[in-house]
What we know:
Largest sheet: 3 strands, antiparallel
Number of strands: 3
Helix content: 55-70%
Number of domains: 2
Number of helices: 14
Strand content: under 5%
Order of helices and strands: HHHHHHHEEEHHHHHHH
Radius of gyration: 24 Å
Distance between the termini: 83 Å
Amino acid sequence: MLLDRFLDHLAYEKRCSPHTVAAYRRDLEQFQAHLAGAGVPLEQATDRLVRAWMMTLMEAGDSPRTVNRKLSALRGFYRFARLTGTITTEPTALVDPPRTPKRLPEFVEEVRMDRLFEATTWPEGYEGAVHRCMLELLYGTGMRLAELLGLKVGDADLRAGTLKVLGKRNKERILPLAPALCASLADLLAQRAVLQGRPLPGAPLLVDERGEPLARRTVQRLVVHYLSGVTPQQKRSPHVLRHTFATHMLENGADLNAVKELLGHAGLAATQVYTHNTVEKLRKVHALAHPRGGGRASDQHSNEP
């Protein structure tokens, strides 16, 4: 079946994550079910049917961003179908995606992140060491949640102060570790050795007190819990900490290309979105500080004739 071949192509040739493959499967099976109502197989869809499905999704309340994601899945599938000779024309080629409002990444203010690490009361013993180290890794490196969960003990070189991370499409990068983060990792591994014995280099880096690797949902829940103690914002997730890392780096003068490499972005465009936050901050500073910025009282009450 062509759909299964395409999903295998994503998993084994493109090396997409299981999460990505599952998302593609859901979107394509949803479109397949929509076509079944008209008696049309997936391979015989037309641009008119694709547009009709998109309209159905938006009328059902799906956001333009969600519809764009689903359209992207269709584009990938029909591109694969054409390359394998199953179809001769791609039904998505002339379909325009719906416009999406530009959404700036949400991040936590620097003073609140300072409060998180300086004022939080952590659980006693090994549990608290794991929680703190998990948060320091996410904020201190900007890594993705999947990258965090994939870390092995041998990936951390505490003498060199570096961490090896396996990113999207199995692309490896080396991240620097701040002294405080090295100390947290050293403390974590020392406590783990006492509790569970010295771990092998290939063992998962973050495990609970029973030696089980931290689950995705556990990390998400813990991030929400700890961020709730320092910020009232609604969005509190591991990815918000990634946004926070990038924004704080740029606000403090980091080179855009350097941040791109640290984040593991394939292109600079994905990193440039973080500059909007820093530009807005600079705009406010300029308005308040510059004589012609428009925000100073002296502009309204000049003593000069």
